[in-house]
Amino acid sequence: MSSLSERLLHALLDTLLMIGASSLVVLAVGLPLALVLVTTGPGGIFQALPLNRVLGSVVNVLRSIPFLILMVALIPFTRLIVGTSYGVWAAVVPLTLAATPFFARIAEVSLREVDHGLVEAAQAMGCQRRHIVWNVLLPEARPGIVGGFTITLVTMINSSAMAGAIGAGGLGDLAYRYGYQRFDTQVMLTVIIVLVLLVTLIQFGGDRLARWLNKRG
Amino acid sequence: MVSFNRNLALEAPHIRLQGLGKTYAGGAGPVEALQDIDLSIRRGEIFGIIGRSGAGKSSLIRTLNRLESPSRGQVLIDGEDIAALDAAQLVRLRRRVGMIFQHFNLMSAKTVWQNVALPLKVAGVAPARVRERVDELLGLVGLQDKHDAYPAQLSGGQKQRVGIARALVHRPDVLLCDEATSALDPESTQSILALLRDINRRFGLTVVLITHEMAVIREVCDRVVVLDKGRIVEQGAVWEVFGDPAHPVTRTLLGERERGLPEDVQGRLQSRRPAEPGDLLLEVRFTGAGRREPDLLAITQALGAPVILLQGGVERIQGHAHGRLLLQVGDDGEDVPARLHGLADHVEVLGYVVPV
């Protein structure tokens, strides 16, 4: 039997892997999704209301399902994608699917808050729509997007612990098996401390980055 | 430079609006924001559009670069109907028509330099050319030491200078100013207006500005239209419109103070001529028409003692004297105003002064 610190390290790496892999997909899919939601909406630069309504409904449906239920419901789909419903990679699928619409909505708010006057100024100077996305919407919303991504990461750590309960591995799994099933308070406490440190670190880093990116004075 | 402008003024209009109208779908039925707008803007002039808020000024200026599409009528720039432009042509038009805004609309995440460079960057201009042009423009607006500052670190006047540099970076031949000085303090307003005039003269740029401040029109404009409820109610050279405002809205915008009477004078005034001749209150106006200059010696000699100046002022707009004098003069029972014939544009007896 390995020592507590070894098990802890292993679990931490599993969690980081789960979060890392999922968050990359969340960023890569959620941000474009947020852009589409904002720009196809009423008065948007690519206004397309039917598409906007369909995407908005999909996001709402995904967001309204509790993570635990989503995870179970997705098992066949997960098996189809990664070949198993057990372990770190299997957890990446429901984590990504839950966090993407979450992040997309937060990023959408930041993008929507970009002053319409800036878009108008960009149009008046001869910007095409793609220029407006790259040079106005994304840079201006960047501090808010970074802040939203930080919140998403923290939420994902929460969810990943839940995923641990159905055999995904990671810190949640460790705490559940030793802390809950074996009443090993020491493991439980240690996991809690590690989680608190991890969340604090992410929040601190995210806040610093967002503040540095915010030039609004 | 000035004669250059005058020569071009004789040519075809630079910008022409014909039967322009704009209707918005409002909650309580359609709202007519602009109706039957016909006007011609000459090349190289500074053209003012004034009106109260909600008069349709913003909608009007936004039709000139198609930020707003008119519901009816045409916008012709150099004789070309801009409604017919496709997306690529519209982008080219907008590079020929610069615009500055009340709230500056600078990108907060970009430095001053990057803000001015943006229009060139999106147009695919080579980096070396961008550098040269941006440096040149920041020099022109007097911000050569602010290249790396972010807009949040600048004063309002400096932000508008960045806005002007950004608007001029493609060497446009039209500059649209959307309430460009309304968010600025009086000092910055003066310096921005001076910059606009300088640019107008130096590059022969046609400037169209909208404002609700008569002072701005008076300061820089050659011609003005007064807009009210989406319609043009008055237009002409600034000295004409200011000297003899025909429409009540123009008078309101000019300020009631020019028409009203001081309170203490009002209190001593009666409309009937008293049995015993005393003094009367005379309003002497100069509208600028006929380039009449207020000749004080001639006026006092024509009126005879006493002549007391109660209130008054004369301004010069485009070389025309414009203003009014309130005079308390002796009443000898004859036709006093007739004596000032040829010395002022309008003379009126406002009432008879009750002796204190």
Automatic annotation (TrEMBL), chain A:
Tree of life domain: Bacteria
Membrane topology note: Multi-pass membrane protein
Family matches, as Gene3D superfamilies: MetI-like
GO cellular component, one term: plasma membrane
Cellular location(s): Cell membrane
Sequence ranges assigned to domain ABC transmembrane type-1 in this UniProt record: 12-204
GO biological process terms on file: D-methionine transmembrane transport
Protein's UniProt keywords contain Transmembrane helix: yes
Membrane-spanning ranges: 12-34, 54-74, 86-104, 145-166, 187-206
UniProt keyword terms in alphabetical order: Cell membrane, Membrane, Transmembrane, Transmembrane helix, Transport
Xref: PROSITE patterns: ABC_TM1
InterPro entries: AA_ABC_Transporter_Permease, MetI-like, MetI-like_sf
Segments forming a coiled coil: none
Similarity remark: Belongs to the binding-protein-dependent transport system permease family. CysTW subfamily.
Protein name per Swiss-Prot or TrEMBL: ABC transporter permease
Taxonomic source organism: Pseudomonas mangiferae
Automatic annotation (TrEMBL), chain B:
Main location: membrane
Entry-linked PROSITE patterns: ABC_TRANSPORTER_1 (PS00211), ABC_TRANSPORTER_2 (PS50893)
Cellular component, GO annotation: plasma membrane
Topological category with respect to the lipid bilayer: Peripheral membrane protein
Classification via Gene3D superfamilies: 3.30.70.260, P-loop containing nucleotide triphosphate hydrolases (3.40.50.300)
GO biological-process terms attached to the record: amino acid transport
A GO term, aspect molecular function: ATP binding
Superkingdom of origin: Bacteria
Residue ranges constituting the ABC transporter domain according to the UniProt record: 15-254
Pfam assignment, any one: ABC_tran
SMART domains: AAA, NIL
Key words, A-Z: Amino-acid transport, ATP-binding, Cell inner membrane, Cell membrane, Membrane, Nucleotide-binding, Translocase, Transport
Location in the cell: Cell inner membrane
InterPro entries, per database record: AAA+_ATPase, ABC_transporter-like_ATP-bd, ABC_transporter-like_CS, ACT-like_dom_sf, MetN_ABC, MetN_ABC_transporter-like, NIL_domain, P-loop_NTPase
Residue runs in coiled coils: none
Entry's family note: Belongs to the ABC transporter superfamily.
Function: Part of the ABC transporter FtsEX involved in cellular division. Important for assembly or stability of the septal ring.
Protein name, entry field: Cell division ATP-binding protein FtsE
